[in-house]
Amino acid sequence: MTACIPASPTDDEERPFLYQDYEDAAGLEEEPSGSHHPKGSKAVTPLPKAQLASLCMVRLVDPIAFTQIFPYVNEMMEYLKVTEDHSKIGFYSGLVESSFAVSQLLSIYHWAKLSDKIGRRPVILIGITGIALTSFFLGLSNSLIGVLIARALGGFFSGNIAVIHSVLGEITDSTNQAIAFPIYGLCWPFGAIVGPLIGGTLS
């Protein structure tokens, strides 16, 4: 038999989903309007719209750079004649695609550590510039080794993603993060949509 857990007296449709009971627990008081909110709750800090927009644009770079190769990578491997066996084209395509992610994984910590020394902005600018250059070199590569190096370097420069996340936390606070984080979170899926469209169009 399943036990029924009684709802709190303050549980209703007006209670925030992520409301924390331990915060201002002693300060709760029922207002005449019938709403149940913590007494003396903080006003919502206005979003730094310009900074948030800049971060979102920077965030788009990573998924676009990662996914733009998807539509044409198989044809690229055939063009470079990496193998005579067409059944192995998929293996080499996967190798090229995964080299980006592996390199990014290995570089994230180091970019974050460097940003504590030289600042967030220089690290972000270095990353954007590096991704642009490696994407250009990818198009000029005429061998599998060249493609792998270009993609691995692209992933290396994309490792600054943790720094971008940190900046988002620094320009927001507990009162407006519930608005800023979902907006920022839309950047990756949007970039993952735009990236293949760009790659497919230009291929």
Automatic annotation (TrEMBL):
Transmembrane segments annotated in the record for this chain: 89-111, 123-141, 147-167, 179-198
Main location: membrane
Keywords: Membrane, Transmembrane, Transmembrane helix, Transport
Pfam families: MFS_1
The organism's place on the tree of life at top rank: Eukaryota
Membrane topology per record: Multi-pass membrane protein
Domain Major facilitator superfamily (MFS) profile: start-end pairs: 51-203
GO molecular function: transmembrane transporter activity
Annotated compartments: Membrane
GO cellular component: membrane
Record's keyword annotation contains Nuclease: no
PROSITE patterns membership: MFS (PS50850)
Keyword Hydrolase carried by entry: no
Cross-referenced PANTHER family: MAJOR FACILITATOR SUPERFAMILY (MFS) PROFILE DOMAIN-CONTAINING PROTEIN (PTHR23504:SF15), MAJOR FACILITATOR SUPERFAMILY DOMAIN-CONTAINING PROTEIN 10 (PTHR23504)
Protein's name in the database: Major facilitator superfamily (MFS) profile domain-containing protein
Native source species: Cerrena zonata
Lineage of the organism: Eukaryota, Fungi, Dikarya, Basidiomycota, Agaricomycotina
